[in-house]
């Protein structure tokens, strides 16, 4: 299969409508790919918190409309990164959108782990509650977003739900780029799955983005890696390598579930 990760540059002075049109054109240009991936919160900016409330949109809003048309025009599965979703009955969410090659919105994922500790996303957005996988023609996608990458228990749950390709859109900052690359490889090795991690380039609200989108195979080998600027990272690989790896080195068979609590011994 062929996957294209669009490492989109985000700048504060580019209107969201113009960026949507530019992103849609980049998606349409990926005809021949099986899967196309965009980064996290690319329409508004992952650190542009002051724009989120006003720029939040429903699942059938302008970003969804543009990405649906682009997926259908290119004939690709499209993980359109994430939007700031406005739920009429609740808070705003960091929500990923997955479209089929016909342009149908078939899966959404609300980010579970919100970054910021006591500020930013952690207080401005609601937390997702569901593990989400997406069945495709080339394997089952496991959906996660940016900060989720630091929580291996989520990826183990995606493994148990059948995930073979872990797709991680992000707005990961340059100052922690080493963690980005390390964690992407770690999740691939742990789950014996492909990791397709698509980051932003540029600067959001003064925060420089890391770039360095990466595709990692089930053995933890980097198949392709982007640089720091905007680019489209395209790689071809065999999804069947997941099953071969798990059969050749069956570590998941030796998992110990429900490890008992430590025994308290008296002297």
TrEMBL record:
What the entry lists under SUPFAM superfamilies is as follows: Carbon-nitrogen hydrolase
Q: Name one GO molecular function term.
A: hydrolase activity
User: What Gene3D superfamilies does the record tag this protein with?
Assistant: Carbon-nitrogen hydrolase (3.60.110.10)
**InterPro entries assigned to the protein according to its UniProt record, in alphabetical order:** C-N_Hydrolase, C-N_Hydrolase_sf, UPF0012_CS
Q: Which UniProt keywords apply?
A: Hydrolase
User: PROSITE patterns recorded for this chain?
Assistant: CN_HYDROLASE (PS50263), UPF0012 (PS01227)
Query: Which residues are listed as membrane-spanning?
Result: none
Query: Pfam families in the record, alphabetically?
Result: CN_hydrolase
Lineage: superkingdom: Bacteria
Q: Which residues form the CN hydrolase domain?
A: 1-239
Q: Which PANTHER family match?
A: DEAMINATED GLUTATHIONE AMIDASE (PTHR23088:SF27), NITRILASE-RELATED (PTHR23088)
Q: Which family does it belong to?
A: Belongs to the carbon-nitrogen hydrolase superfamily. NIT1/NIT2 family.
Q: What is this protein called?
A: Carbon-nitrogen family hydrolase
Organism listed in the record: Kitasatospora acidiphila
